[in-house]
Write a structure and sequence with these properties.
alpha+beta, 11-stranded mixed β-sheet, 12 helices
């Protein structure tokens, strides 16, 4: 059959017109979905999911799930928004769901099962390998991570002044758990999900939304934070910034200028400076009125609780004659937060950041035989402050590697306290602002049902541990309100042991933060994975993430899924004074109390009315512990594991460690911190 001929010009014009019409159709008709909906996703089983998205205004949208063969129809409003609620089936896999507004979009390999949110800071964010180091047995764990029924959704880091409808996610959406996907996902969350899958034999979906170094208030909504007076004005300030309509570039420029102005103010108020010169670094300075402090160590533990500001610390070091006139290296390890280092009155280095090692060259012309003066101007904005690293990292060395230690007694004097100055400017675009992570990384997921939450955070709030007693429960209740699930399970990790051990009982902000976490168990439907035996002295990111995930899963399996298994280590219950001893009782003594290593119990301290604690003898008597010390004939209080990095060994018969605790209510390091 002969076809009519079309001129080349007309043919080309028709093709262009057809292409334009097709593109216009795509732009106007294509259904778009938020990031939480994609192929390979897991939907909470036997629940109701409000599917939603955008389409052309007024368009009819039909949603067709394969599990029930039904069609659900709705109409996009004038802004293009639409929503339709669909019941989900019992656990299963291999489903599809289609969205049609004239053009069909189909999601495949959809599963129904149990969906959990994982959140917190770096110990939750930590991948099996990466910037925070490698987990234990990383190569083997990665190679074995083939679980088609475990699905992973990695949320990108983002912040916002106001709640966002959608989140940014990695790799286009949900991923099936393969070695490739698992090695760029939270190790703790993966091990938690693996344990659930092993015991429940249903698909498991995990949404990982975490960000290292972040504070709890950043993950809490503005409406809830306003109930706490110390945050109300900060939230209002952020809301004002959001209402200005300024671009991010303008906001950042304003912040940078405010920072410069504040630094000038600090320098002008710092008594250690005189006419722009570091007067307190001078070698001939009279320091007879200065106090002493130990290095390494945080100053909050050494007579300066709650101090934020500038602290000048200095000491003399004796240099051998053979080193004179030669370039040396000075190492201070990490300093919290920022520092400027001087050698014999001249600056030799400066670094910002609490977790960065300090390693500087000392010019040869500054080095003389005999006494030389090292001065460090330490600036701390919040939480712990000081030269706090390992003793082996703090030294002066020559080119041959010979070292003179710089540990021990230093002298110190405050230059200025931040409490004496106006509030420091804060980066409104940074993650450590109230509400901004909730708005960008939590709120977008609150429209879909989840089974529960796992949480690993607290390090960044340790300097305000007493405040955390209120803040953490506020966050939990806030999320429950946001998901409209008053009984939403919320399981969290208690801070692991970290930093150098102490030889005598001392106050500890990390211990106070653990106490705040322990107190949060008063909220129903919560559980705590104790990690006091899993930490590392020199690394804030412990490598054993397997046991962390396992202990979180025990809490979920027992309390959410009704498995009859032990899920907690011993928790302090009550005390009774008996002459020169104190008898302690515990909950969760499953299988009886034990010293796991078979040695005498460690980590117990006892005090009398003078509030002076001494290491104590502790013995297991049945399911109780009796504590005594010859130094305390009339005891009134006991502490266990009360340190940054305590030596502890009390477990139950299920092999789960006891939580640190104290029986006293005496004010601690952070009682006044806000």
């Amino acid at each position: 059959m002969n076809k009519p001929k079309t001129s080349p010009w007309l043919k080309g014009s028709l093709l262009v017109l057809s292409g334009l019409l097709f593109q216009q159709h795509l732009a106007q008709a294509k259904v778009t979905l938020p990031a939480v909906f994609s192929s390979h996703m897991v939907l909470q089983q036997k629940d109701k999911v409000p599917f939603h998205g955008t389409a052309a205004a007024g368009k009819t949208v039909t949603v067709s799930p394969s599990w029930n063969k039904k069609k659900y129809t709705t109409q996009a409003d004038k802004n293009g928004n639409w929503q339709v609620t669909v019941p989900t089936p019992a656990a299963g896999r291999g489903f599809t769901i289609s969205f049609n507004d004239g053009e069909e979009l189909t999601l495949t390999n959809v599963a129904a099962g149990e969906v959990w949110v994982a959140s917190g800071q770096s110990n939750m964010e930590m991948w099996p390998t990466g910037m925070f180091g490698d987990i234990r047995n990383a190569p083997q764990e990665i190679a074995a991570a083939n679980y088609p029924d475990i699905r992973l959704l990695q949320v990108d880091k983002n912040s916002s002044f106001s709640p966002l409808k959608d989140a940014q996610v990695s790799t286009g959406g949900w991923q099936v758990c393969t070695p490739e996907a698992m090695q760029k996902f939270s190790a703790v969350a993966y091990f938690f999900g693996r344990e659930l899958h092993k015991n429940l034999n249903v698909p498991i979906g995990i949404i990982n939304t975490s960000w290292g170094g972040t504070i709890a208030e950043a993950w809490t909504s503005g409406s809830s934070l306003k109930s706490m007076p110390e945050f109300a004005s900060k939230v209002e300030d952020i809301e004002k910034v959001a209402s200005t309509g300024k671009t991010q570039e303008t906001i950042l420029a304003d912040y940078q200028q405010a920072q410069l102005d504040f630094r000038k103010l600090i320098n002008s108020k710092d008594a250690g400076y005189a006419q722009g010169r570091a007067a307190w670094a001078a070698t001939d300075l009279n320091t007879s009125s200065w106090n002493q402090i130990k290095v390494p160590g945080l100053w909050e533990n050494q007579g300066l609780p709650g101090f934020d500001g500038i602290l000048w610390v200095r000491r003399t070091v004796t240099v051998p004659a053979s080193w004179a006139g030669k370039e040396l290296t000075i190492s201070l390890g990490p300093v919290d937060d920022d520092e400027i280092t001087f050698f014999n009155g001249e600056q030799v280095g400066a670094t910002e950041g609490w977790d960065k090692p300090r390693l500087y060259k000392v010019p040869a012309h500054l080095v003389k035989a005999g006494e030389n003066v090292v001065t460090v101007r330490v600036s701390d904005k919040e939480n712990g402050g000081g030269i706090y690293g390992n003793a082996q990292e703090i030294y002066l060395a020559n080119a041959a590697g010979e070292k003179e230690p710089l540990t021990g007694d230093w002298k110190y004097k405050p230059g200025v306290r931040l409490a004496e100055l106006p509030a420091a400017p804060t980066n409104p675009l940074g993650p450590n602002q109230p509400t901004v992570l909730y708005n960008a990384m939590v709120y977008p997921f609150t429209s879909v049902p989840v089974k529960g939450v796992i949480w690993y955070q607290g390090e960044s709030n340790a300097g305000r541990a007493y405040q955390y007693r209120t803040l953490f429960p506020t966050l939990i209740n806030d999320w429950r309100k946001s998901w409209n699930r008053p009984a939403l399970p919320f399981y969290f990790v208690q801070l692991a042991n970290f930093m150098a051990p102490t030889s005598e009982p001392v106050d500890s902000d990390w211990a106070e933060l653990r106490e705040a976490q322990l107190m949060t168990l008063k909220l129903p439907h919560t559980g705590m994975a104790v990690a006091i035996d899993l930490g590392e002295e020199k690394d804030i990111h412990p490598k054993n993430k397997q046991d962390v995930g396992y202990r979180l899963a025990l809490a979920a399996l027992a309390q959410t899924y009704g498995k009859k298994i032990p899920f907690s280590g011993p928790l302090y219950q009550s005390m009774k004074t008996e002459g020169n001893s104190i008898r302690l009782t515990f909950q969760h003594t499953n299988g009886g109390l034990q010293a796991k290593d078979g040695k005498p119990l460690t980590g117990f301290a006892i005090a009398g009315a003078d509030k002076k604690y001494y290491w104590a003898d502790a013995k297991i008597v049945g399911n109780e512990v009796v504590v005594t010390s010859p130094k305390v004939p009339n005891p009134v209080a006991v502490r266990y594991g009360w340190a940054n990095n305590p030596s502890v060994n009390l477990y139950n018969g299920a092999g789960l460690p006891a939580s640190p605790f104290r029986t006293d209510t005496w004010p601690g390091l952070t009682v006044a911190a806000k």
